[in-house]
Amino acid sequence: MSMNQTSTLNQKLFIILILLIPLMSCQNLIDTPSLSCPSMKMMVNIGETTRVMNFVSNVIFNQHTDSGGIKFMSTEATCDSFKVLLNLRDTLYTDLELTNDSLHLRTYEFMKGVKNDGLVIIAIATPQGYKFLETDTSSITIRRINTKNQTVTGFFYLETGNKAKVATGTFENTCYVRLE
User: Residue 20 pairs with which residues in a beta bridge?
Assistant: First the structure.
């Protein structure tokens, strides 16, 4: 091989290497649980109907403030006829407390225009997509959180306007992902 051919080959290899480095460095920095979440059990009762729900997602994340921060949890599960969204806002934590996954074991409540700590939303499946019902009152109770296995267990309640729809449900060993 001539000197020019070797130089050209080295340049091509260098370009290929430069192009491959970003691909090799792309790694998932979040230690995510299996999206199938096999140990998860979620049941929802709406009127006379009880459904077993399929896990979609569950995320715990923080909002930093000047004096610490607030933790949030957002969960979604679906079945053939509706989906359920659970959104809770925990109390103020110190900066050090924000580094762990735990939430307070308590009941988080939502009352339209009054409290906004535990919002439960139901969306009914229609041929055009989902129709979200307006929540009047709801609550989410966290009974157990396992930070080692990244699971949370509890139950919830929902009322829509004039108690047109009342829903209750339980969630057990629901996997979560922690976002910093």
Answer: none
H helices of the chain, where?
3-25
Q: Which residues pair with 69 in a beta bridge?
A: 64, 93
Q: What is d(CA 95, CA 166) in angstroms, rounded to the nearest whole number?
A: 38
Q: What sign results for the dihedral spanned by CA atoms 169, 174, 177, 178?
A: positive
Contacts of 37 (CB under 8 A, 6+ apart): 55, 58, 173, 174, 175
Secondary structure class of 16 (helix, strand, coil): helix
**pTM of the predicted protein model:** 0.76
Query: Does 137 score more than 70 pLDDT?
Result: yes
For CA atoms 129, 46, 51, 151, give the dihedral sign.
Answer: positive
Residue 78: other Cβ atoms inside 10 A? 18
The number of residues in the chain equals 180
Contact between 180 and 167 under an 8 Å Cβ cutoff? The reply is no
